[in-house]
Amino acid sequence: MTYFTVTQAAELLQMHPESVRQLINSHELGAFRKGPRGRFLISQKQIDAFLVPAGADWKSRKPKK
């Protein structure tokens, strides 16, 4: 599994690292700390879950022409 730091996740999500930390602290973006005072690590799965709203049915969407 691939893990990203806050800075790396911010680049992927095209937002400021502090915004990513705020999302983590508000439990909108899942993450865990490596060690008692370590840095946050965010998995690719957690980033994907943040980007795709819960219950979204992407298969039924028709492509735009």
What does the model show?
The protein has one domain. Helix content is 38%, strand content 12%. It has helices spanning 6-13, 17-25, 44-51; strands at 3-4, 32-33, 40-43. The chain has a three-stranded antiparallel beta sheet. A hairpin with a 6-residue loop joins β2 and β3 (40-43). α1 (6-13) crosses α2 (17-25). The longest helix has 9 residues, at 17-25.
How many distinct helices? 3
Average of pLDDT: 87
Structural class: alpha+beta
Strand content: 5-15%
| H/E series | EHHEEH
Bin the helical content: 25-40%
What's the helix and strand layout?
Blueprint: E1 3-4, H1 6-13, H2 17-25, E2 32-33, E3 40-43, H3 44-51
Antiparallel strand pairs: 1-3, 2-3
Helix pairs in contact: 1-2
Write a short abstract of this structure.
The chain has 65 residues and is an alpha+beta fold.
Using brief descriptors, characterize the structure shown.
3 helices; 3-stranded antiparallel sheet; 12% strand; 3 strands; 65 residues; alpha+beta
